[in-house]
Amino acid sequence: MDPSSALDIAPVERLLISYRGSEDVLKYCESELLPFFDQNIASWKRQGRQFPFPLHVKFMLRFVPYSPDLVIDLSKNGHHRWDQHAFLHLFFMKPSSVDEYRLGSRHEVSEWFASVSQVNGAQWLILFDSTKAREKKNRGTLLERIKSDFAKHTSRVVEIHEGSSQCMNGLQLLMQSYLLSSLDAFVSYEESYLSVLKEDYKSSDFNFIAYCEYQMEMSRLYSTLGVLEHVLAKYDELDALLSLIVDHFSKESTKPSWLCGESHIGDGCPLLTALAQCNAPPQRRSVSLIEIRSLIVAHQIIVSLRIFDERVRHLSGGSPPNAIQMKCDFAAIILRYSNHCITSICEECSAMGLKLDDGEVQCWTVAFCVEAMQFVSLLTQAAHVEHASYFACSLSTRKCAAITELGKYVESGESKALLAWFEKGVALCARSAAESNAVVEIRLILSDQQQFTHYMQKYHESSIALLKHFGWKRQSKLLGWQLANFLLSSDRVEGALPYLLKFVSGLIREGVSLLLVERTLVLVVQHLEASPNLYLKELVDFYVILSIHSAEKNDRLAYCKRLFALLERNNSTKIRHSVRSSTPYRALYISAKSIPSRITATPGDVLRIAITVTNNLPLSLENYLVRCVFRLASSSCSRQKPTGGRSPLFECSYNHADGVNRFGCIWKGEYGVLPRDSVSETDVPICSGDEPQKSIVFEEREKRGELRGGNNVLTLEAKASDVGVYMLENVDIEVAGVLYVTFAWMDIPEIERDNSRRPICFVYRKAATVSLRAVKGGYALSGVAQRLDFELSSGSEPIGDASTSLRVTSSNKASNIEFWDESTSKWLKWCHPQVGSLAVNEHRSMTVYICKALRNLTTYDEADSDVATTSDQICVEWLGKEWTFVVEFRSLISVRATTSLLEDKALLEMQMSRVRDDGWVILPQEAVLLESSIDEPQIPAKLLNTKLTPIVPKSSYRIVWVLPPRRQHSEETVEHEIRFAYRVRANGHFDPDIPEGVYDREYVYEEDIALTVQRACYELCAQLLSSQPGAVLCRVDSACDLIVSLRSLTNKVETVVIGVDADSRFWAINEKHKLLYVKESGLGQTSFSVVPKMVGFLPYPSITVYCCHHLRTSSDKSLGHIEQSMFGAHLASFIRTNGKQVHVLGAFNPSADQKSTSSDKSRRLKEAKSRLTKLFD
Q1: Residue 241 belongs to some domain of the structure
Q2: Which of 449, 439, 388 has the alpha carbon at shortest distance from 416?
Q3: By residue range, what is the domain housing residue 859?
Q4: CA 490-494-499 angle, 5° bins
Q5: Angle subtended at Cα 675 by Cα 672 and Cα 676, rounded to the nearest 5 degrees
Q6: DSSP letters spanning 849-898
Q7: Region (Disordered) spans which residues (predicted)?
């Protein structure tokens, strides 16, 4: 591993800036802004904070598309992830004219502004690229229009154009200011939040894992900003807080909830290289001290290397003496952090009373020390760091002690589990694993005995040299003595040392001298051999012990041969050993990990299970037999007391009526029952004639020849016959026809720890079934052919009839669902796909194509215009049985029908919306609107848009008819019939998974609709004029005149009420209703005084016409007020200026020489009347 690869272990992230709008402006800004922020440093002055001096930060930015989730809302309590929020939001626009801005960008920027401005404190800018506008000489008016739309935020509207460095420099400084403001608010909030969390560290419910994750996120933020010293200080605070927590709880009886109490360190070996890539602690409820401290020290080392790299690059002239001294200083920092980590772990585990897996601890210790020295070697040799000699020597001593202990697991064959555990940690290193010496060396140590010997010697020799270099003479002698004993043991008979070490460790654990035990056993055996028939059982037990634990290989083989010879000489005697988990010196060991807890089968099935038998004897067993017995559970077992294993079971109950708690023992356990070891031949559990009816016996059908030493995975088979529930009873191993080793189900370790893992075999009869596979997307589309897949299973009985078929139809006979019949190649109300014959438990998939026609989709409310969802039941008949499945359908289109008036004509508009991207393109063929009349001939309505174009997904499509003339102005309800014929094709790369011959057909959407159309009585026209003298346009907060002109379409002389209403945010209207007398000419005119309240393009106030109960004549000038009793029915009218907007400018101070307002108002009223008269003419 070189320094550059070490720095790449944890890459630096970038701050997010969201954008929306023009992609061209985005590309231009990216090319100008990213290099500037990557190369320049900003001064971040934090007033009243921990660091009064300014921090020199560097903004590493990344542009991402805008989303409301990227807006930081600091008003919400809790932790906020900085890498999931944008610190600044930009909107890019590049219109060339006011019309292009109004039609193309204004709506989008308004929607974006409404979303961003909802969050208080969100920083945003609008960037206007005026390059195109300058070319068309529209820059001034366009910029004024944009700023008028955002009059309250003109400082956030920034103009740029290509080639202008002045504009870009201003934008860069403005963005830097907003980024600092947003960053300061975010960091202040997070630091306050972490400070509040930290105050509760003495509580057992304090979640240190979450606190560590939040603190590491803040450290990553500071690392992104380039303030590495601040990052290192944050990790030092984490380390100090962890020490305080452990010191506090070491004196308490309880432990913190986040601290793992199990013996395992973690899911894999916590390697520094892997943990340096982790941005957070393991996402579990609890972690070990080794994992959390390794995580902290890994980041401390990486940050230290980054600080060193940054300082070296800033050295003036790259002075070699300064660089060498700096390497030694930072190497000492790494050694200090590493030694502090491993020392703290040992002390804290002891203080907390934690019992960790020794093998994992030793493996981690070796890997940790090797990795720490590897990081130091990136800077200099450990022998060159004189002022950190204690740390270097301590790490070397711990490494040698750990590999010595690790040798016990390698020599005893227990290193496979450690290697697998270690590889899990290696998998997290990714490509860094190939560059790590620790990974390569630990793999070789755990996988090969010779490689273990090599590295054992290498580590001791290098440590001895380092200790001698720093003057640690006594410790170096101790390591030399350990190495000498190891080498001396290696020169003896191969394999003797691992057994001796294991035997000595056993004596130490039991407090008995191993030499005394071995001599005692040999002496006892010599005496027992004189009378083998009398002490047969004891001789077998002692032979097993000496065959397994003798120091010399020859002695073990000799005692094992004596054991086999003893069994052959006494073949008429049967010896049974009931092995329990507490039995020492077991020759054979059973593991049921490979047996599933639940086994299901049907009568006649061949069952197979795998069981692991461990042979601890030095010789292979040739004459053996393994049986696994599952006993049939009797029908009366529910009335018997449950068998809960060796341990007692207790039950606690509460009586609500009496308010009494009861606690009792429902199973006393079986530890007091002494099993019989020597039984007669009739008592040996050999299957009798009637036993196959009561049990299932698994045996090895094809014997492997011998039971070799170590783990042997055996495959046992049995045939299921009778229906019932069978439970594992015992496992028997017969050796030489004499020794029967029985393992009861409650003595198997996996089941003893958890009785729910006792294997149970269910033998049952299985009927044929039909199931519907999940429809793609969760629903089917109506209006187009769809595919349904049915899964057929024959069950426990074969189906031999090759002519069997399914009958698929709809449960609702009136349903508009059709099925594709392959035999006739037609769409029918049912289909009969052929199934054929099926074997036992055979599964087969059948495909059925279905089409649900579109009917009655029209809605009149826009809120209900979304695609409707319906459910239909599909009935499947097979083998005389019936299955019903509910299929959810969603319409291919949604339809909304509206009627409107256009002068004296009535229109019917059918709007078809496709809100989802379903992959189909609709090809319209015909659209017809007819009256549902029986007595009169049907007159088709005139179709305005006669050219029907394809309808693509996520689009809206309109079809407009002119109602027949005789029905346009009839106020009675008339039934109409809509018929829309279409075809479909797949859109682009969409794969319909349906043959083209199936879905390529004509589809028809039919609808019956009732229409009532009123005739328009009046035609209205309105105009807005400014009340200011000499002014043409309206200005905000200045009165304007709304002139309403009316033309009667019925030539009726009457008095009507003209009503004006508007949104109070846009207009202020003092008098909203006026009486208007319609003359014989059919014309009338009145005016209202309105005041605009907002700058921009405002919609005209709405105009309404009502009947009037007051019979006013033309001689009446006005009424003082209009009472509610004067209002009559609402009159249908055609408003010619409906939807029109008026441009409202900002307010201005009137000039001194302003003319009379009244005279100017009269003049403009006359001009407006003249223009409106010409318009009506």
Answers
A1: no
A2: 449
A3: 769-890
A4: 85
A5: 145
A6: EEEE--BS-EES-GGG-SPPEEEEEEEEEETTEEEEEEEEEEES-EEEEE
A7: 1152-1177
Cα diameter, the chain: 148
248-273, pLDDT tens digit by residue? 888 888 888 888 777 778 788 888 88
Residue 675: Cβ within 10 Å count: 14
Q: Give yes or no for a contact between 807 and 832, defined as CB atoms under 8 angstroms apart.
A: yes
Q: CB-based contacts of 462: which residues, under 8 Å, 6+ apart?
A: 396
Looking at 511, 544, 570, the residue that finishes a domain is 570
CATH number of the domain where residue 1083 is located: 2.60.40.10
As to burial, measured by CB atoms within 10 angstroms (0-12 exposed, 13-18 middle, 19+ buried), residue 755 is: middle
- Beta-bridge mates of residue 1008: 977
Residue 419: both structure tokens together: 């290697």
- Regarding whether 931 and 954 lie in a shared domain, the answer is yes
Q: What is the CA radius of gyration of the chain?
A: 45
* Cβ count within 10 A of residue 43: 11
**Tokens found for residue 337:** 């952090």
- Cα separation, 150 vs 148, whole angstroms: 5
Q: Residue 341 has what pLDDT? A: 92
User: Is 293 part of any domain?
Assistant: yes
Render pLDDT for 154-173 as a digit per residue (tens, 0 to 9).
Answer: 888 999 888 888 888 889 89
CATH code at position 60 = 3.40.50
Please check whether residues 524 and 599 belong to one and the same domain: no
Using the structure block, give the residue that is written with the tokens 């969100």: 122
Q: Say if 980 falls within a structural domain.
A: yes
Counting the structural domains of the chain, the total is 7
Tens digit of each residue's pLDDT (9 = 90 or more) over 977-1012: 899 999 999 887 777 888 988 989 999 999 888 877
**Do 353 and 470 share a domain, yes or no?**
yes
Tokens of 192: 């306050």
Taking the chain (1177 residues) in runs of 10, the rounded mean pLDDT of each run is 59 87 90 88 72 78 90 83 89 90 89 88 90 87 89 88 86 90 88 87 86 89 87 90 88 83 80 84 83 90 89 67 83 92 89 86 90 89 88 91 86 84 79 71 85 84 87 74 64 36 39 56 62 70 74 84 83 73 70 86 86 87 88 64 65 85 79 39 36 75 81 88 87 85 82 81 88 89 92 85 86 87 90 88 90 83 59 92 93 85 75 87 92 74 88 90 65 82 88 87 89 77 82 84 88 88 90 88 90 90 85 50 71 80 81 51 68 61
Encoded tokens for 42 = 């900003």
Does a structural domain hold residue 604? yes
Taken in order 695, 698, 701, 706, the sign of the CA dihedral is: negative
Q: Kindly give the residue spans of alpha helices, DSSP state H, lying in 156-267.
A: 165-198, 208-225, 228-249
Of the candidates 402, 502, 415, 414, the one whose C-alpha atom is nearest the C-alpha of residue 460 is 402
SS3 call for 972: coil
Among 1011, 1026, 1055, residue at a domain's last position = 1011
Asked whether residue 387 falls in the same domain as residue 457, the answer is yes
Does residue 141 share a domain with residue 274? no
Distance, in Å, from the CA atom of 474 to the CA atom of 690, rounded to the nearest integer, reads 74
Query: From the CB of residue 571, how many other CB atoms can be counted at a distance below 10 Å?
Result: 10
Q: Which two tokens stand for residue 26?
A: 């985005």
Give residues with Cβ within 8 angstroms of 754, minimum separation 6. none
